[in-house]
Amino acid sequence: MSFLNAVAKKVLGSQHLREAKKLQPVVDRINSICNEYQTLSETDLKKKTQEFRDRISDATAGLTTKIVKLQDEKRNSEDSEKRQQLQEKIAECDEGILSITEEILNDILPEAFAAVKEACRRLVGTEIVVSGQRQIWDMVPYDVQLIGGIALHRGKAAEMATGEGKTLVATMPLYLNALVGKGAHLVTVNPYLAQRDAEWMGAVYNYLGLTVDCIDKYEPHSPERVSAYRADITYGTNNEFGFDYLRDNMVHSLEQRVQPRHWYSIIDEVDSILIDEARTPLIISGPVGKDTATPFKQYNRLVGSLYQKQIRLVNDLIAEAEKDLGNQDEFSAGEKLLAAKRGAPRNKRLLKIFSEDPGIQKLVLKVEADYMREKRLQEVDELLFFAMDEKGHNVHLSDGGLDELSPGDPEAFVIPDLSGMMGEIEEDESLSVDERRNLIVEVESEYASKSEKMHVIHQLLKAYTLFQKDEKYIIGEDGNIVIVDEFTGRQMSGRRWSDGLHQAVEAKEGVEIKGETQTLATITIQNYFRMYDKLAGMTGTAETEETEFHEIYKLDVFVIPTNRPIVRDDREDLIFRTKREKYQALIDEVERLNKLELPVLVGTTNVEISETLSRMIKRRGIAHNVLNAKQHKKESEIVAEAGEPGAVTIATNMAGRGTDIKLGEGVTEPRTLGWVKNRGLDLKDLLSVDPTRELDLENGADDLLIEPGGLHILGSERHESRRIDRQLRGRAGRQGDPGASQFFISVEDDLMRLFVGDRLANVMDTLGAGEGEVITHRMVTRSIETAQKRVEGNNFEARKRLLDYDDVMNQQREVIYDLRLFALEGGEDLKGEIWEMIEHSVEEVLDEYLDHEYSDEIDLEALKSRLALEYFTVISDDQLRELDPLEIGDVVLGAVRQQFENKIDGFGSHSEAVSSYIMLSMIDSKWKDHLYDLDHLKASIGFRGWGQKDPLVEYKKEAYDMFVDLIGDLKRSVANLTFKAQIGPPPASKGMSRSRNNLNYSGPTGEPNKDPDSLSARNGTGQKGSQEEVRLPPGISDGQFGNAQPKDVSTNRSQEKVRTPVTSTKNPGRNDPCPCGSKKKYKKCCGKGVA
Fold this sequence. Notes:
Oligomer: single chain
C-alpha cells in the first residue's frame, strides 16, 4: 500500500499540492484586483476598509437587532421556562449571524487580501520602528503567501517552512476577520514576539485604518489592557489570553471583564502551543491552609538513603552477574542484570555491558520475557528496594523497600481497606451512634495519614530516579527549581510540577520547599482555544501531528508550498555503539566544518549534553556559543551571530525558535576543492566521518564539492518527537539557501535504548562493527522514525487522557461560569433565579418534615423553628393547624416567598447589586472548594485501576456526584445568605482586609492594586456604593478573593512575585505549635498520624 501511495504521489502530486492548485484561481483573482487598486488614490484605498465593514453589518443588521430585543426581554423575565426559550432563540440568531458573516467574508476575501497586498507595496521603503530598532519595510506577499493566508482564514493549521514569512501571511486573514468588529487575535509563544509582530505588522493595519495592540505590554485588568482587547487586532501570548479568561470569571462586576467574544484567532507556532504547552493546564491558585512542606522534609533523608542503598545494591548485582557469566551461568546472570535494569536503567556500568556485548542484552530480554509469560516479574522486583518503569514514568516500592523505610513496624505503610472497615463499623449493631461516628473518623484519619506518607515517598522516589538536574530542571539564580521545557530548552519560570512532585524535587536539592497551593481557577490550553468560533494556526512543522490537530481542535493541516525549492541536504543518521564514540565523531565534524568556515548549529536534547559538548569543543580551541536554559537571556544575540562564517552554536532543541538564522557574507558559497586549496587547508583535516561521503581529495578536480554552503545542522541525539527533529533541520535552508543536516546517534541514547537499541545492537554485531566504527543506512533511519511514532502515539494518548479528565471539569466550569455571568448581568431574571434556589432549598426542608402519611406525625414546632432560623419566616400555629402535608407545603412556600419579596424590597436601590454579590460570593466559595476536592480525586483515582476499574469512568461518576452536591449546596447557601444579608455602614478597615499577597496566579504579575475599595456593593449601573456595603454574616466566605483583585493572585506560569511559603525551618516536635499557623499543637493538626 505504501508503494502504491508513493507512486500516486509522484504521478499526481501530494494532497497538499493538489489543494494549493485548487486555490490558484483565487490567487489570480487577488492579484488582478491588486493591479486595479494600484490606480486608486491613498484615500480611496483606505476607504475600502469601511466599505467592507458596511457590507458585513448591513447583512447581519436584522438578526443583530432581534438579539438585542430578545436579550432585553430575557433580562426582564422571572419565568425560568420563558428565559430558557428566549436563550434558545438568541442562540439560533447568533448561529445565523455567524453563518451570514462567513459567507460575506468569503465573498470579500479577494478584495480584502488585495487591499493588504497593495498596502504592503505602497509601504515599501518606509521606515518603521520595531522593538526600538529602525527598519525599512521591504515585504510584499507573493503567491504562496496568499495561499497560506487563505488557509488560515478557512481555519487550517498551515505548515510553512522557515523563512517563508508566516508573520506577513497572518496579516491578510487577520485584517479580513477583524472587519467583523469582534476582535481578531494573534497568539504567540513569548512576549517579545507578540510585541515585535504587533509593531512590525501594525504598519499595514494602521495604513488601512485598523487599530492594533499587544496585551502583554500592560498589567492584567488595567485600562490599557482593556483598550488592547478593544483594538481591531490584538497580539499576545497564549498564557495571558488564557489567564485573562480565568480572571474574567473571577471578577465581581462586568466592568472588570477585559476579554471580548472569542471570535477568531491565529496561533503562531501552533504545534508548540497546542501540543507542547497542552501538557500543563493554566492554573490560578491560592495558598492551602495547612503545612505541606514538612512531610517532604521528614522523609527526604530516608528516601535519599534508600536511593543510595539501591545504587550500591544494583552495582553488587551487576558484579555478581559478571561472575555468573564467567561461570557460564547465563540464566542467573540474566536474572541479576534484569533486576539491575529495573532498578537503575541508566547505570553506566550496565549500559557499557549492553553496548559491548549485544548478546547479553538479548539474554536479559529473554529472561524478562520468561518471567512476564509466567507472571512472576514481581519476583525480580523483590531483589530490589524499588523498581522503575522509565516508559511509564513510574516507580514502585518492593516489600524490601517498605521494610527498609520502617524497620520493626511492618504495618507502617499498609493502607487500610477503607470501604471494608467502614462497612463493618456500619453493620456493628453493638455500637452507639457516637461510637460509630468516632470509629469512622479514626479509620478515615489513619487512611489519610498513610496515604499521604505513601504519596510523599513515591514523589520523592520519582524526584531521585526520574528527574535529573540539568535535564528536567535547573537551579535558578535565586535558588529556586526552574523547569526546563523538554522541547525548546527554555526556562519555564514560575511553572511548578503538580501533585507534590515539585516539592519533592526541592527537598531532594536542599532548596526552600514552597507551600502547596490550592486551585482557584483552571483550564487546559485545549479547552481554552476550542472556545473560539474560528481557530487557525501556523508553524514550520505540523504534518507529524495532524491526527491530534484534527481530533482535538478540528484543525486540518495544510502544507503550503515554498516560494523557492528547498535545496538543504538532509543526510542519513550516523549510528555509533557508545555515546563517547558519538560525541568524539560529532566534535571532529564540528572542527572540520569550522575549518571550512561554515556556520554550525549543534542541536542537543538537554542542558547537560549541551554543556558536555561545550567543554569538549572548548578543549579543541574552537570559539562557540551555547544557547540553553541557563543562557536564555542572550538568545537574540546568539541567534544573530549563528549564521556567520565559522560560527559554532550549541542550542538545546529549538532554543531561539521564532527568529530566523540569517547567513553571513560568503556562507552560501560551495566549499570545493579549489576553494580549500586557495586557503591552504590541510586536506587530511577535511575527511568526513560519514562513510557515504568519502572523497578522493588528493586526486580530485578543483570543482569537486566537499560541502555545500549554508548552515550545517548536527543533531547530537534523536528527539522522541519527529516534529522536533524536523524543526531542528528546518533552521537551515531558509528561502532556498543551501545547507545540510545530520544526526549523530548511539545505541546508548534514551530513545534507542528504550525502543530500538537491542535490535540495532544485534545488527551492528552481525555486521562486525568495531569500536569507533559507524553505520548508516536508510532502513536504520526508518526504524528510528518508527520508534518516534510509537512515542508520539503514547504522548498523544497522554494529552488526550488529560483532556478527557479536563472535559469533565470543563462541562462543570461552563455551567458555573455561565451562572457567574448571569449573576454579573443582574436584572429580574437574576431575582427569579435566586427565588428558584430558595424554593428548591425550602422544598428539601419540607421533605424532611412532611415525609409522613398522616399530618399528626409531623413535628410542626421543629419545622417552624427551622423556617425562622434559616428563612426568617415566622408562621403561626393557626396557619398550619389541620392542614395536610401538601397544604402545609403551599402555605410555607407562600410565606417564604412573601418574606423574600420583603427582603429584596428592603434593599431598595441596592437590591440588584446585593443579589448579584450574594450569588457571586457563594459561587466562588463553593467552586473553590469543589476544585480542591476534584484535585484530590484526580490525584488518587488512578489507584482504582488496581481494582480492575477504569479510572476515567470512575472519575466521571464521582465528579458528577460531587457536582450535583455542589449545586445543591450552592442553592442552600444562596437561600440562607439572602435572608441573612444586611446593608449597613462600611466596617472599619483595621483587620478587615484580607492580604492580597496570600493569593497566587501563574503568569506575569504586576504591582498590587493600590485602591483598597474593591468590594463595595454595585448599584444598578455597575458603580460602587459609596455610603453602604453588603454585610455578610460571620463565618460566611466572601468568595475567592476577599479584597484582592484578580490581577493580584498568582498563576502556575511565569510567576515573578516571591511568595512566602508555609515551611518549617526544623522538624516540629509533637507538642510544638503547628507551623501552618493554626495555633494548634503539631500532633493535633498537620502532624496527626505522623510517627
